Structure prediction request, 530 residues.
Amino acid sequence: MTTAAIYLRQSKEKKDSVSIEAQLDKCKIICQLNGWEYIAYDDKGKSGKDLNRPAFKQMMQDIESGKVKHIVCYRLDRISRSMADFSNLIVTLEQYGVDFISATENFDTSNPLGRAMVNIIMTFAQLERETITERVTDNYYFRGNLGYWPGGTAPYGYRLTKITDNTGKKHSALEIDPEQAKWVRYMYEYYLEPGGSITKMLNHLNELKVQTNRNAQWTSRVIADLLQKPVYTSNTVALYEYYKMQDCNIVNDISAFDGTGSLNLYGKTSKNANRHKRCRDANEMYLVVMQHTPIIEPELWLAVQRKKASMLPKSSPRSGTSKNSYLTGLIICGNCGYHVSITKQTGNYRAYMCSTKKNRGWYTCSAPNIRAEQLEETVIEDMIRHFTNPTVVQKVKENYKKQLSTTPEQQREKNELDLKLSQIDQEIDNLMQAISSGNPTLLKYANLHITELDEQRQEIFKKLQALDQEEHQQDHLQAAYNFVYSYLDDFAQKIRSADFDEMKTICNTLISKIIVNRKEDGATEIIYII
Prediction:
């Protein structure tokens, strides 16, 4: 007897969907009327977006082996919603002499009319699918641009909740997951610590058995992605400027960047944008102000971005600077006040020489050269003495992990100044465009107003510089406290066993400057951050 394949598929069990059992009963009637034996192929819970389904693949193997001569299904869209997939299937079935029959649509491909009807119905099925996809996409961007969570899983550190707008409609939003948020902050802070890296953090998180949202182990890619998501920080003007510099498509006006909410970088601005979000550049996505509470302060978030940018491959450093001395940039000549740099002479002999003498002639500064090994050993011994001093140790313990960064009041002041500065820049741009019209009267008043605006701009810029300088000093001091604390258990041994790169980090973190050949006594003075 002829064998038929009954193909069954149901994506999800819904009240208005036809069950697998009901589909089978309908198809069995067709087989019984034609006297066919049948084999049922069941793809329960599988989508019809493509043909990559286990039971379907098995059915095609049986067709190729000659085991099946007819395919019977409840409805065409049980096979596929793609016109291209279905057309290719019909061609394949013709090659093997297999007919296709729909139990509810009363046609089969054994005659020309049946084949024509199949194509027409599948065209409308695909149109319906594309319309649904377009409607879902439009809703995704509509929700996102209003500042709600557009869709998908909540990012690590948050969970989904529902909020109601002023019309009574509910939307998805983010709320902090306290346990996960703790690890998000840990990752941002750890990355900025001296020697902190994604690789070290990855190993540490997996050792502690901290799992991702999907209850899996962390990977370096997932951590790197988390460390650059603006969803974790505040909607300040500094973030507006950061993404503006990257030509990002910013949905909100600058006035919305008031520091009271957060941000989301999502979607894609064109069909040609990279498929995977993690591979897209900022200018291929939309930046929108969100309503959820941030986890990371904008200064910390931006500091992480600066470090990440600094870790990108660069040209090789100049010989004689960063490769020959970990004290480069810290040493000042006590005789003339200029910097002292390393100079390599014959053989393995290295010495520090005043840059005045090096660049302008030996007679311009009387300070003698200092043998490199001698100065470096002096610095190491003095660091050990200083940072094992009980008074310094107590100070470090009291200030470790203490919040020394910008206060909320300072941050508000900085954001207000940033906002004013951007508004003044915008006003100046508008006036410049107006001047281009050539109206003499307008030109006169516009020039006067631009002068006034520029004076205001300079004043605001000075205040911002002062705040930035204070913030930088506080951040550097906090980094020094955290670093020394991590070395307290055996400071001397850890310093002496550190490699070149570690020593460079240690010295730049803990030392403000080194004054050599002081005029008074020719001694060396080391001024520490702590």
In short: The chain has 16 helices and 16 strands. Confidence is low (pLDDT under 50) at residues 314-322. The first strand starts at residue 3 and ends at 10. Residues 440-487 form the longest helix (48 residues).
